[in-house]
Amino acid sequence: APPLVQDTVTQSPRSASCGKCVCVSCFLRSLIFPFLIRGGKPMPLYTFALAFMFCGYNGYLQSRYLSQYAVYADDWVTDPRFLVGFCLWLIGMLVNIHSDHILRNLRRPGETGYKIPRGGLFEYVTAANYFGEVVEWCGYGLASWSVQGGAFAFFTACILFTRAQQHHQWYLEKFEDYPKFRKIIIPFLF
Fold it and tell me: Which of 167, 76, 174, 62 is CA-nearest to residue 184?
């Protein structure tokens, strides 16, 4: 088994900070979405409080680890774990952003009611935005090669898989013409 990154002690300040900066930048991308939301429905206080606690605690864990404890080798940005993780993160981010764009533009100004999302990965799954987010954070977990990053990916997947199932069931009940071949969150599988 390859040695853990944390065990590596030889590093130059420039390359070590390069690996950290990329991981921090990947994590900070999560701050973009709230600024893109238009309107929206009220959220129960309990749900808001749980989400706030999760995000606050997770943000603390990720930033504390990357700023204080992470030690990456000089060549970490060329390590296959980092490269594959970064590529997954980038693909997931692009899927997530594109899917959110489709969802935000389902209604024209002044329209109300619900519509079936079409285009992009929505042709294959109900929760394309959640799929992108899970891929994104699994990539981050791999690129950071940390327990904190892995835990973030795992718990994000657990939460979003549950929400995706609920959304899928709602669409099936709400729309008679909802595509029956669409999977819940993972194209062609689940």
Answer: 167
| pLDDT tens digits in sequence order for the chain, 190 residues long | 444 444 443 444 444 567 667 776 766 666 666 666 666 667 788 887 888 888 888 888 888 888 888 888 888 889 999 999 999 999 999 999 999 999 988 888 888 888 999 999 999 999 999 999 999 999 999 999 999 999 999 999 999 999 999 999 999 999 999 999 999 999 999 8
Q: Which one, of 77, 59, 49, 72, lies nearest residue 149 by Cα?
A: 59
Domain ranges within the chain, ordered by starting residue: 15-35+43-174
- The span from the CA of 36 to the CA of 43, in Å, is 17
Joined tokens for residue 78: 């060329």
- Token pair of 88 as six digits: 């997954």
Helix (H) or strand (E) holding 50: helix 45-64
Lookup: tokens for 169: 């069931």
- Number of Cβ within 10 Å of residue 173's Cβ equals 9
- Taking every pair of C-alpha atoms in the chain, what is the biggest distance, in angstroms? 61
Name 183's bridge partners: 125
Element (H, E) at 37: none
Kindly state the DSSP code that residue 164 receives in the 8-state scheme.
H
